[in-house]
Amino acid sequence: MERDLDISLFGRLADAFGPQLNVALPAACSVRQLRELLAMKYPELAELMRSSRVRACIGDSIVSDDHLIGPREQVEFFPPVSGG
Amino acid sequence: MTSIIARLQQADLDAAAEFDALMREAVGDGAIVTFVGVARATNKAGEAVDALVLEPHPKLTQLSLDQIAADGATKFDVSRVMVVHRFGSVLPGQPVVFVGTASPHRRAAFEAADYLMDRLKTEAMFWKREEGPAGSAWIEPTEADYRERGRWE
Questions:
Q1: If we measure between CA atoms, which residue out of B83, B86, B99 comes closest to residue B53?
Q2: How close, in Å, is residue B123 to chain A by CA atoms?
């Protein structure tokens, strides 16, 4: 069963396609698989999506690439942050 | 009990007013240290910068400031920790961040301020870009920033 997943992009990740994407997600998809799916679908994002410097966040917590995306979860991707 | 202020604001940052407030509150402390980070007028290549733009996360930016300030308060013998950070568009010459610490003795106040800035540079949840006549460029922490952060591990 596929489902629609809302994805929020921040910083330079939003340069090419804006801050929101919606993709059809296969059942039992991990963050790693989502990164690859986005990299294939949006070649402009491929390098960043495959970078370990870009972190995935679900429910306000950073998650590992092994995390299986739950049915009601939304995913945010963060490039490196910097204040000051 | 350390007093902690961690404030995120879009409005201009009045560093002198923040200092005055800290000075007023830090009664009995022997040392106050402050740091002000200011938006630069040129980028690393020496080209003009019109504005530094800091994009925040709707929730996590404030939480990151709270966490960094709380860690500074725990790690050092300080009685007050202040972090005031702007988001949005900051013009060259304007303050981006104000860090203030107060302590009975100077060493802890110096070290806490240094620590807070190293954490803010690498962990405060902002996406930062410089806008200029040549366009817009994202700014990420440098290797030196990460090294400085690593000194406190």
A1: B86
A2: 6
A-contacting residues of B 101-120, CB under 8 Å? 117, 120
Nearest CB to B127 within list A57, A81, A84: A81
* Number of Cβ atoms within 10 Å of the Cβ of B60: 20
Q: Global pTM? A: 0.95
For residue B45 the two structure tokens come to: 């290549």
Distances (CA, A) of B104 to B23, B65, B112: 13, 24, 13
Q: Tell me the three state secondary structure of residue B51.
A: strand
Q: B9: how many CB neighbours lie within 10 A of its CB?
A: 11
What are the counts of helices (DSSP H) followed by strands (DSSP E) for chain A? 2, 5
Q: DSSP labels for A65-81?
A: TTPBPPTT--EEEEPPP
Is B145 within 8 Å of A82 (Cβ atoms)?
yes
ipTM over 0.90: yes
Computed over every residue of chain B, the mean pLDDT equals 97
Cβ atoms A8, A77 nearer than 8 A = yes
Task: Say if CB B137 and CB B129 are below 8 A apart.
Answer: yes
Helix axes B106-123, B60-75, angle to 10 degrees: 150
Q: What is the pLDDT of residues A38-61, one digit of tens each?
A: 999 999 999 999 999 999 999 999
